[in-house]
């Protein structure tokens, strides 16, 4: 089935995006990328440790996979813009996950600062995918600002609580048709990823649930399959649930005619 | 001369350029970004720009993240 995810004109063969944080080792990360078939992975930027020579994460990411650099660490729009410009200078493309967080307890994104950053960065030619609280007005403002997608959180980052924001995400899916809606954060199980896709989300981004699984590679593949299954179910248009029973086998034609 | 690199005081030889700084710490240039006094230094300028006393240098690269 040819059903690409299209972001900023780029056709992607997978609707599963993978975060690269917290993996136990980089070999697992590489295999998780390969076995899940993801075409977009998030990465972050940090200061180089001068005291020890660390392994470069880039050598574990296949060349045909798009790097989506997040602006984690940014507490406001200005810092997000600074990080994005650094990312572009690093020479691995211009896809940016805007992530502006100024709350250390819940790590919730600041939508207002995110919109400001999106306006500036889209104006500078970046492909911006903002991570947001699922708010319709914020999502509309981001579309106007030139965002290439909107990425509402399912629940708190790293919490594996699933789709706590389900009703609000459903509104975004219904109303935001210009760009993909990608559910990011809080997805803890493949069944929750499938649920997001059945609702009509365009894609799902997962990190912690895979990195923290005992077998990260197997879990990455499980998530990729669930995203695919959920998408197919959405396209197939599901039968309505019903309170009354409805026999699946013919009721007549054996003993009780 | 003293400079600040990634938030730490470091001693560097006089007259070295940005590229020398990376070599000094055995940092491979792939995916590395250099900020000098909050200004990004483009790769093709690494050899041209000399480091001065009290400069604030940020050496940044990619890590895993969600």
Indicate the topology.
The complex is a heterodimer of chains A (about 260) and B (about 70).
Chain A: E1 5-7, E2 10-12, E3 16-19, H1 26-36, E4 40-47, E5 66-70, H2 77-89, E6 95-98, H3 111-123, E7 127-132, H4 136-145, E8 151-152, H5 166-175, E9 182-184, H6 190-199, E10 203-206, H7 208-211, H8 216-236
Parallel strand pairs in A: 3-4, 3-10, 4-5, 5-6, 6-7, 7-8, 9-10
Antiparallel strand pairs in A: 1-2
Helix pairs in contact in A: 1-8, 2-3, 3-4, 6-8
Chain B: E1 2-5, E2 8-11, H1 18-24, E3 33-36, E4 39-41, E5 56-64
**What's the overall geometry of chain B?**
globular
Q: How much strand of chain A? A: 15-25%
**How many domains make up the 3D coordinates of chain A?**
1
The CATH fourth-level homologous superfamily of chain B: Beta-grasp domain
Description:
The complex is a heterodimer of chains A (257) and B (66). Chain A has 8 helices and 10 strands. Chain A is an alpha/beta fold and 257 residues long. Chain A has a single domain, classed as Aldolase class I (TIM Barrel). In chain A, helix 3 links the parallel strand 6 and strand 7. In chain A, helix 2 packs parallel to helix 3 and helix 6 runs parallel beside helix 8. Chain A starts with a strand and ends in a 21-residue tail after the last helix. Chain B has 66 residues and is mainly beta. A 5-stranded mixed beta sheet of chain B has the order 2-1-5-3-4, with no helix packed on it. In chain B, strand 3 and strand 4 form a beta hairpin.
Short key terms for the protein model shown above:
heterodimer, A: 257 residues, alpha/beta, TIM Barrel, eight-stranded parallel β-sheet, two-stranded antiparallel sheet, 8 helices, 36% helix, B: 66 residues, mainly beta, Ubiquitin-like (UB roll), five-stranded mixed β-sheet, 1 helix, 11% helix, 36% strand, globular
């Amino acid at each position: 089935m040819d059903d690409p995810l299209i972001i900023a004109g780029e056709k992607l063969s997978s609707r599963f995006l993978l975060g690269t944080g917290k993996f136990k080792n980089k070999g697992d990360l590489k295999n998780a990328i390969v076995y899940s078939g993801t075409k977009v992975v998030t990465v972050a930027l940090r200061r180089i440790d001068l005291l020890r020579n660390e392994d470069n994460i880039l050598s574990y990411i296949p060349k045909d996979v798009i790097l989506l650099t997040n602006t984690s660490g940014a507490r406001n729009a200005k810092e997000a813009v600074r990080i994005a410009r650094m990312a572009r200078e690093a020479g691995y493309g211009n896809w940016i996950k805007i992530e502006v967080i100024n709350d250390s307890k819940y790590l919730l994104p600041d939508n207002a600062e995110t919109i400001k950053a999106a306006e500036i960065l889209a104006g500078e030619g970046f492909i911006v995918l903002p991570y947001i609280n699922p708010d319709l007005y914020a999502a509309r403002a981001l579309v106007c600002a030139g965002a290439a997608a909107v990425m509402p959180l399912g629940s708190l980052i790293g919490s594996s609580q699933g789709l706590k924001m389900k009703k609000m995400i459903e509104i975004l899916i219904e109303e935001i048709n210009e760009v993909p809606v990608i559910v990011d954060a809080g997805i803890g199980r493949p069944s929750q990823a499938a649920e997001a896709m059945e609702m009509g989300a365009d894609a799902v981004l997962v990190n912690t649930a895979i990195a923290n699984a005992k077998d990260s590679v197997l879990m990455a593949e499980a998530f990729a399959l669930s995203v695919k299954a959920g998408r197919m179910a959405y396209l197939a248009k599901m039968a309505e649930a019903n309170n009354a029973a409805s026999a699946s086998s013919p009721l007549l034609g054996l003993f009780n005619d | 001369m003293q400079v600040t690199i990634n938030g730490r005081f470091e001693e560097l030889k006089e007259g070295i350029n940005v590229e020398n700084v990376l070599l000094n710490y055995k940092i491979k240039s792939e995916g590395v970004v250099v900020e000098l006094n909050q200004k990004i230094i483009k790769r093709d300028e690494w050899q041209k720009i000399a480091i001065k006393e009290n400069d604030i240098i940020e050496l940044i690269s990619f890590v895993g993240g969600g």
